[in-house]
Amino acid sequence: GVRFMNEAAGRLLALEHEETVGRTLENAIPFFAAPHFAELFSKVVECGVQTTGEFAVNDMRVCARWLRLTATRFEDGVLLTATDLTAIRHLEVQLCHKAHHDVLTGLPNRLLLDDRMQQAFERARRQRAQVAVLMVDLANLQQTNDLHGRAAGDFLLQSVAAQLRGAVRATDSVFRLGSDKFVVLFTDVGTTRPVANFERKIAASLSAPVLWLETTLPVSVHLGVAMYPDAGTTPETLLIQADIAMNRMKQVPAARSVPLSESRVTDFRSFAFTLR
């Protein structure tokens, strides 16, 4: 049973000293009945060596969500020391999120894009499917910054990011690649239909200008698509091919720019369209 508990442990575990001492550890602190805690204690008892482990805590009575527990043989018992790691883990999660997401739009960044593309390629190889990478260039971002200021440009980026997120399927992802570029990753694609459906949705949502204070901000985007595995088998190659397709479309007059959903394209290795 529990022989001693100091005040710090009582505060951390939300227990009174008088109610805890003399009771078994499992009865006094129910979450210690979990198998991973039993393993921690058994190593100390059997081997006599100090053992440390870090554990998630789901017991709402405990004033911590993560604990580092160190168990040490002490006379004929076990001395258990607990450290609250909640704040440290919370900071780690925040730093990890910031490292993998764009601060302005909240979208995943290039670091996550490469990882997600590799995962999508592996699934596509197993399932004999395709992956589509769509490059989106916000063509009038610099003009917006020049005419209305950086705050207006940031608002335009946030608005377009929200529209892109709302137009994709649950299985697809939107990333911010650079200052004025986004990437949409379509996974498990058998045909170009998901991309065409996206084009229709995004054309409808971006057809109206964005309201900014007392003015409106027009939206002009160029889009280029590349398909795995025909256009490339690595993230870098596929992104380059999508970018080439998008830049090629920038040279096409608006009157000749045909939406994918209305085109009769049969070679889907790479293609592009423009929304103005």
In short:
The protein has 276 residues and is of the alpha+beta class.
Structure write-up:
- With 276 residues, the chain is of the alpha+beta class.
- It has helices spanning 7-13, 17-20, 25-28, 35-47, 86-100, 110-127, 141-148, 150-167, 193-205, 235-250, and strands spanning 51-56, 66-74, 77-84, 130-138, 173-176, 181-189, 210-212, 215-217, 221-228, 270-275.
- β5 and β6 (181-189) form a beta hairpin.
- Residues 255-276 have low confidence and may be disordered.
Rg calc: 28 Å
Which stretches of 5+ consecutive residues score pLDDT under 50? 255-276
Summarize the main sheet.
5 strands, antiparallel
Going by helix content, strand content and strand pairing, the class is alpha+beta
Task: Provide the fold topology.
Layout: H1 7-13, H2 17-20, H3 25-28, H4 35-47, E1 51-56, E2 66-74, E3 77-84, H5 86-100, H6 110-127, E4 130-138, H7 141-148, H8 150-167, E5 173-176, E6 181-189, H9 193-205, E7 210-212, E8 215-217, E9 221-228, H10 235-250, E10 270-275
Antiparallel strand pairs: 1-2, 2-3, 4-6, 4-9, 5-6, 7-8, 9-10
Helix pairs in contact: 7-8
